[in-house]
Specification:
Keywords: Ribonucleoprotein, Ribosomal protein. The protein has 178 residues and is mainly α. It contains five helices and three strands.
Length: 178
């Protein structure tokens, strides 16, 4: 049983795995999309998304924390520069994994593309502006409902009078127990 085993070790020792994820995260930040296996992409997503969240707050402490993970000055500059400005209003979900459906010839591993969501222009519409977030309120529905009932009341009044004129149905007499 695999109770409490959340980490995919990717068939590597911990130092090798951390180096792999660090290099892949740097490549993802610099190139905005990389091709890899599905297992590595899922592990990379867990590794890089907290770093992207930390990059929203541009302080010396957060830069040093991110640098301790990435070990690459250029990727830290890119992350806190252009990437952080694009993801500043996104509450999470910075990466997208797109499966190719084909497999690698050597080992039959399922391949995919992992990319930063805000840097893909295929899925964004040209000229489409972001809608402002609106809060739901019931006041407008009540106002619309009041208008509708006022209009419907004049039409429904004759029907209500006709129903009132009808005699109510009598209930069937109850049988007494013997």
């Amino acid at each position: 049983m695999r109770h409490g085993k959340k980490i995919n070790h990717l068939g590597r020792k911990s130092a090798h795995r951390h180096a792999l994820l660090s290099n892949m995260a740097s490549s993802l930040i610099l190139n905005k999309r990389i091709t890899t296996t599905v297992a590595k992409a899922k592990a990379l997503r867990k590794y890089v998304e907290p770093l992207l969240t930390k990059a929203k707050n541009d302080t010396t402490h957060s830069r040093r924390t991110v640098f301790s993970y990435l070990q690459n000055k250029e990727s830290v500059q890119t992350l806190f520069g252009e990437v952080a400005s694009k993801i500043s209003d996104r509450p999470g979900g910075y990466t997208r994994i797109i499966k190719f459906g084909d497999v690698r010839v050597g080992d039959n591993a399922e391949m995919c593309l992992i990319e930063l969501v805000d840097f893909n222009t295929l899925y964004t519409k040209d000229g489409a502006t972001k809608k402002a977030k609106t809060r739901r309120s019931r006041t407008s529905k009540k106002a619309e409902g009041a208008e509708a009932t006022a209009e419907g009341a004049t039409e429904a009044a004759p029907a209500a009078e006709a129903k009132a004129e009808k005699k109510p149905r009598k209930a069937a007499p109850k049988k007494e127990k013997e």
